[in-house]
Every structure is written in C-alpha cells, then in structure tokens.
Amino acid sequence: MAQYDLGPSTLAKEALRDREPTMWRYREVLPPCEPISLGEGFTPLHHTPRLGENWYVKDEGVNPTASFKARGMSAAVSMAKHLGIQTVAAPSAGNAAGAMSAYAAKAGMKAHVFMPKDTPRAFIVECDYAGATVNLIDGLINVCGAEVRKFIDANPQDPPIFDLSTLKEPYRAEGKKTMGYELAEQMDWTLPDVIVYPTGGGTGLVGMWKAFDEMERMGWIGAKRPKMVSVQAEGCAPIATAFANGERFADEFPNAHTSASGLRVPKAIADFIMIDLIHASGGTALTVTDEQMVAATREIAVATGIFAAPEGGATLAAAQILRDRGFIQPNDSVVLFNTGSGLKYLEALEDH
Ligand SMILES: Cc1ncc(COP(=O)(O)O)c(C=O)c1O
Question: 69-163 adopts what CATH topology?
Fold first, then answer.
C-alpha cells in the first residue's frame, strides 16, 4: 500500500478550513497528481436519532456516479493519467464500473469494464453512456477479474492497459481512505465508537483503517479506534464465515448470491488484512439476509429520507442485530455507511 512521509508538518488541520468540499481537500495525503474530479467526497454525515440515539448515516450515495467507488476511481484514474496510461480495465460488481467509466471519460481515456451478466441494468447503461466497452460475463466478479487479465494479455499496447482491479493497484484504496479522514473531520476530530460497513472486496474498511493510522501520525487524532464491523449478505459471506471460524484467510464462498450486487464478492484478496483489522479494533463480522437488508433499506428511507442501496440497508439490519446482542451499547456513537444510492437497484428494491 502507498506510504507517505507523514508528520505534524505534512498538513495542518486548520488548512482544511478554506478548501473545496471534495476528497481532494486532503491532497497532501493522496497520490501526487493532477486530480480528475467530478466533485467526489465530503459527503454528508447525517445524525439519524430515529434509527438510534447517537447513530449517524454517512451518505455515500450522493457521490458522482452514486457510490463511494467514485473516490477510489477518482484517485486511480487521476494517477493513471499522470503515468501516461491511455486505457483502463476492471472487473466490477457494478458501482466500480460506473465510476471507472465516468472518470475515464472525464480524463479522455478508454475504459473496458467486465461485469456479471445479471448486474443491475443501471450500471450497464451508465457505463455504456460514458463510452466504456461493456463486457458481460457468465460468472461473478472473480471470473470477471480473470477475464480482465486475459484481455490485457491478449491486447499488448504501449503504454499497457492499466488493470484497476480492487487492491491490485495502490490508488483506489487511497481514494477510499478519505472516508476515514472525513469522518474524523465531520466529528470534530473524534472517531465514533462503532463503524458498520458493507463488505465486498474490502477497500472501504482497509482504506479507512489506514486513514486512522495516518491521522494519528500527523497528530490529528489519538490512539482510540472505532470497532470496525463488517457486514456481508448471508448468500455471500466469506469474511464473516472466516471470522466466525477464527481463520485469517477466507475460502471462496460457494454459490454466492445476493441482490446487493456490491456484496457479491466470493473471494477477496484482502481477506487477511480485513480480518486482522476487525480483530485489532475489537470489532466483528456478521451476515444479514436479503430480506433483512431490503426491509432495513425501507426503514432508512422512512426514518431519514435517504434512499439507500441495499448494501446501506445491510448496515442498519446488522447494527440492530448488534444492539440486540449488546455488542452496541445504548450510548455508543455508531456510523452506518450507506455506500450507494437505491436508484441503481430498482430491480432489487421494488415490490418489497
Ligand atoms: C454499494 C456498495 N457497497 C459496498 C461494496 C463493497 O465494497 P468493498 O469492495 O470496498 O468492500 C460495493 C462494491 O461493489 C458496493 O458497490
């Protein structure tokens, strides 16, 4: 992962006051390049007392392309452009493909996306409109990843096609980590007691954990960390299963299925990084059913006005389970990450 020479003089918190409300406000701790930006980041942190007294929703659905994936792709495409790359390719469950296509369009680069053929329509149409070549694959994101590698091998170019697969390059996690920076800034340089995050490939969790360490090294926050909670779908739960079995590496999850397409990641290369950080934080990993996440998505909409992605709904369902178990205490400050917008998931959400 990317390392910076960090200390108290890298960036003063006070310098942020006059900066633009995007993730690039933290540019000293981001890849050194000219940003390709659509205004990503600095998303609202809503206090949502009707969900829980001291509970908040960080609404990533208002990002460009309607998910937190905009952050990673803004960083990665900016750096690719900086390095002279002309073509990018990535496998995706949907949101990353939409984001990559949009940022590649803005950068004047060519994008090739590889998605499962039953990916929700909105993602496919979005990529197509941004000029990407859309490849629909008979298999899940890991099969799509293998297709990307075959495609790059079969199409040697100078400069080569840049593989933007999750955590195969260092820049996407750098963009995602800005969620951790923002949370601290929006909570007046404290961190919540608990963060609940819907987990697929894991860059959200891994990126935020890195941000907390970086902020501590710059003297912005102390040593206290939130309990990091990973939520997965019952139909695709490699991390939650490995965690429950006391293992550090996760087996590929068989017959992976869930209508929260972002959580349909049967095998994550960052499994051990996620499991280590969940343990180090005193957190946990758990699953919810598709029915629970869709019901919770409606509950979020009714109680807060936010039309969340089902992945966001999963965080509320999980937090309620953890409150019932006593893992979340009545006074705990809890941040639920709504990672995307419900508008892209109408097939999964209508008629419920
Ligand atoms: C809306 C949404 N939430 C969560 C995730 C999972 O994120 P990560 O792969 O960073 O764990 C995804 C991934 O596609 C997603 O699209």
Answer: Rossmann fold (3.40.50)
